[in-house]
Design goal:
The chain is an alpha/beta fold. 43% of the residues lie in helices and 15% in strands. The chain has seven helices and five strands; from the N terminus they run βαβαβαβαβααα. The chain has a five-stranded parallel sheet, with helices on both faces. The longest helix has 14 residues, at 37-50. The relative contact order is 0.15.
């Protein structure tokens, strides 16, 4: 496989000897998607440090879209919004079509308004959007969102009830 499609399953957690493991979370498979290889690797390491045991990190949004169509269900997907080839909005469409039960955390270096619009768009597609965070993503933020991801979906869905954004609001945010 090309390096952008290789899962990061063998990567030891940052700062930990490979023989020690954090307490495993009852989370299930996690997919991280970011076109920046450094960010992708960092998120995978942070997720493992927190206790995620089944982490796949892809640095290619096109490959991620293909994986979403063919892989067993992911419990959580961490997704960048701005990537070459396929942007995060298209990836949200793919998640809605092929992984609708996954909890989704959006990340970006873009303006907060874009992040908010993308969150609302995901919710409008009935996705379980945990929220959005600007890069760089801290391990504290990841812990917070993972705590939400392991809660019952109905609990999070109640928190995520928002009105659908208007087309004008989406155009203004982008």
């Amino acid at each position: 496989l090309p390096s952008s499609m290789r899962p990061s399953r063998q990567m030891p957690a940052a700062g930990k000897p490979s023989g020690t493991h954090p307490q495993a979370l009852n989370l299930g498979p996690v997919l991280g998607v970011d076109d920046d290889e450094f960010v992708c690797t960092l998120i995978a390491r942070q997720l493992k440090e927190i206790g995620a045991t089944d982490v796949t990190a892809l640095c290619d949004a096109v490959a991620a879209g293909a994986l979403l169509r063919s892989a067993p269900p992911f419990a959580m997907i961490v997704c960048d919004l701005r990537m070459p080839g396929v942007d995060g909005i298209q990836l949200l469409r793919d998640i809605a079509a092929h992984q609708p039960k996954a909890a989704v955390l959006l990340i970006t270096a873009l303006d907060r308004k874009v992040l908010t619009a993308a969150e609302e768009l995901g919710r409008a597609r009935s996705l379980r959007i945990l929220g959005g965070v600007r890069k760089p993503v801290s391990i504290k933020d990841l812990r917070t969102f993972i705590a939400l991801a392991v809660q019952a979906p109905a609990e999070v869905a109640v928190r995520n009830t928002l009105r659908d954004p208007t087309a004008e609001e989406l155009r203004h945010a982008i």
